[in-house]
Write a structure and sequence with these properties.
With about 325 residues, the protein is α/β, with parallel strands linked by helices. It has one domain: Metallo-dependent phosphatases (Purple Acid Phosphatase, chain A, domain 2), CATH 3.60.21. It is about 25% helix and about 25% strand. The protein has eight helices and 14 strands. The protein has helices at about 1-15, 55-60, 90-95, 100-105, 125-130, 155-160, 165-180, 205-215, and strands at about 30, 40-45, 70-75, 105-110, 140-145, 150, 185-190, 225, 230-240, 240-245, 265, 270-280, 285-295, 300-315. α8 (about 205-215) links the parallel β7 (about 185-190) and β8 (about 225). α1 crosses α7. It is globular and about 50 Å long.
C-alpha cells in the first residue's frame, strides 16, 4: 500500500505542467468593499441542494441574518448536479429557494461537491457567466476583500482517484495564489467541500485528501470551511488552522466518534455566520457563530437559535519561507 500511495502521489505531481511561472494569481477578484467597515455578515451553508422543505426553511432563516454574501460549501444541487445552465434542477434547488438573495443582489460564491460532479460540472461555468449574482469563474478561484482573502477549492479532485489529471493544476494554482496574496492578506480562509477532521458520518479525510490538506493548507491559512458531512461542527485547530463544518443546510446527518480536538458538533439543520472586526493590535478578528433551527415541515421554521460561537485572530498566510 505504501508503494501504491507513492506512485499515485508522483503521478499527481507529473500529470500536468505547472499553470504559470509568472507568479500571477489567475481566477482572482479584488473587491473594493470592506467586510469590516461595512459591518458585513458572511453566511456559510453546505449541502443545501435538496430543494425540499428543510432546505427552504434554512433559506428562510438566512433571510433574517442580514447576509452580505453567501458561501456554499458544495453539493449545491442534489442528487447529481446539473446537465446545463438551463437545467430545471437549478431553478428548483437554488434559484427559487434563495430568490430573496438574488432579488436583493446578494452575491453567492459556490464551490462544487462530489454530487455536483455526477452530471456536467462544466455547466457551472456557464451559470457563473450568465447569472451575475453567482460568482463562479472556475472550479477553483480566490477573492480578496481589503485583506480578508478567500481561496475556493474543488476538493473532489483529491477525494476521487479518477481526477488525477485535475489535481496538479489546482495545487499549482493554490501555491501561486497563496504566494501572490501573502503580503496583503491579513485574514485567510480556504473553502472546500470535504473536511480535514470531522465528527460526522464520513469522518476524517482519506489519506490522499489529508495529504493535500497537510501539504498545502493546514498551518498556512487561518480558517478552513467545509461541508460534506451533514452536521454543524467546530473541529478545533490544527497547526493554527481553525476547522469548521457547515453541511446541514439541506440534509441532516449523524454524529460519529468526535475528532481529537472537537469543540462543538450538532446533527441539526443550520448554518454559520462570520463577521470581522479589528482588535487593539490592529489584527483582523473573525467572529463565527453556529445557528440551528427547527423546520416546521412547511418550508418555514419555528425556532432559530445561536448554538455556538468562537473567535479567530487572523495571522494572514503563513508560507514556508516564514512570510
Amino acid at each position: 500500500m505504501h508503494h501504491l500511495r507513492t506512485i499515485l502521489i508522483l503521478c499527481a505531481v507529473i500529470a500536468q505542467p505547472a499553470v504559470s511561472e509568472t507568479g500571477r494569481n489567475v481566477f482572482h477578484t479584488d473587491y473594493p468593499d470592506s467586510l469590516i467597515d461595512n459591518d458585513a455578515t458572511v453566511c456559510i451553508i453546505g449541502d443545501s441542494g435538496t430543494g425540499d422543505k428543510n432546505a427552504i426553511a434554512v433559506a428562510r432563516a438566512l433571510e433574517t441574518m442580514h447576509c452580505s454574501q453567501i458561501r456554499i460549501l458544495g453539493d449545491v444541487i442534489y442528487p447529481s448536479g446539473i446537465d446545463s445552465a438551463d437545467d430545471p434542477k437549478l431553478e428548483l434547488r437554488l434559484l427559487k429557494p434563495y430568490r430573496y438573495f438574488f432579488e436583493h443582489n446578494i452575491k453567492i460564491f459556490p464551490v462544487l461537491g462530489n454530487h455536483d460532479h455526477k452530471s456536467n460540472a462544466d455547466a457551472w461555468l456557464n451559470v457563473g457567466k450568465t447569472n451575475p449574482s453567482i460568482h463562479f469563474p472556475n472550479f477553483y478561484y480566490s477573492d480578496d476583500w481589503n485583506g480578508i482573502c478567500f481561496f475556493n477549492l474543488d476538493t473532489s479532485y483529491y477525494e476521487k482517484i479518477y481526477f488525477i489529471t485535475e489535481r496538479h493544476p489546482q495545487t499549482e494554482w493554490l501555491r501561486q495564489a497563496l504566494a501572490a496574496q501573502a503580503k496583503q492578506c491579513r485574514f485567510s480562509i480556504a473553502i472546500g467541500h470535504h473536511p480535514y477532521h470531522s465528527s460526522g458520518g464520513h469522518g476524517d479525510a482519506g489519506w490522499l485528501l489529508a495529504w493535500f490538506f497537510e501539504e498545502e493548507l493546514i498551518g498556512k491559512v487561518d480558517l478552513y470551511l467545509a461541508g460534506h458531512d451533514h452536521i454543524l461542527a467546530d473541529e478545533g485547530v490544527a497547526d493554527g488552522t481553525h476547522l469548521l463544518i457547515s453541511g446541514s443546510a439541506g440534509l441532516r446527518g449523524r454524529l460519529k466518534e468526535p475528532s481529537a480536538d472537537k469543540r462543538f458538533a450538532a446533527s441539526e439543520h443550520g448554518f454559520i455566520t462570520l463577521q470581522f472586526s479589528r482588535n487593539a493590535d490592529d489584527k483582523i478578528v473573525g467572529l463565527y457563530k453556529f445557528y440551528t433551527l427547527e423546520a416546521d415541515g412547511k418550508g418555514g421554521f419555528t425556532e432559530l437559535k445561536e448554538a455556538w460561537q468562537g473567535r479567530i485572530v487572523g495571522q494572514g498566510i503563513r508560507t514556508e519561507s516564514g512570510d
